[in-house]
Specification:
The chain is of the alpha+beta class. It has 2 domains: 36 residues; 190 residues, Jelly Rolls (Sandwich). It contains 4 helices and 11 strands, in the order H-H-E-E-H-E-E-E-E-E-H-E-E-E-E. A 5-stranded antiparallel beta sheet has the order 6-3-11-1-7. The two termini are 47 Å apart. About 5% of the residues have low confidence. The chain binds calcium ion (2 copies). One calcium ion binds next to loops.
Amino acid sequence: MSAFLDKLKTDQDTQIMTVCVAFFLIAFPAYFAVASSIKDVGVLGGEVGTYEAMVNETVVEVGSIELSIGDGDSADASFNTDAVKDQLSGKHVAIARLVFTWQETNEDTQIGAGAECDEVSADYDLSGATHNESSDTGSESWTENGNCANEVSHTIEFKMIDNYSSNNTTYENMTEQEVMSKYGNMDLGRGSFMTTVSVTADKGSSPVFGENDDPGEDVTVTLELVVISVTIEKSESDT
Ligand SMILES: [Ca+2]
Ligand SMILES: [Ca+2]
């Protein structure tokens, strides 16, 4: 050892070699510590692997509007998700639903004539909202059998996220960020949703007194959003 120390004091090659050894002894543990921390915090897109995504859905009602619509007429309802901005903060909107409900409230029935449920149709316009639907506009119409003594309800559902599924899903060979991107971004499902609702009053009639009188119907339109929190965990079998 003393021979090595003597050489260290005098021989330049020994000095350089000693410095190099010392450098690697210090640098390698530091390198491995940094490399493992990069993996942990998910820099560079995160670690590729198998992940399970779990979805927790809650329903947020944006608003509800009752429209009184005359026979053969139509009326507009418009909703803006700003009304529930706080409840959407930091969340994904997976689905938007326009729900239309009505019952027969005002048909004046003649003796021997039953009431008939009215027909409702709706045009929708999503051009004011951020979404992944292929079409901004469209329409639906509903003809009911019976007299609608009890309320009837119909829903038009719009997916805000492509291929959305509320099931827990396993994703292979992806980073955590790539898995999260499957749930779109937090701009989707925001903005204004509009619908124009039309009513055709169907009327019962009696052979003696003729057709019932029915001036139209009240239709309630509700916009609700399915809001999700997504939790992503590394699959047990992949650790
Ligand atoms: Ca009717
Ligand atoms: Ca009616």
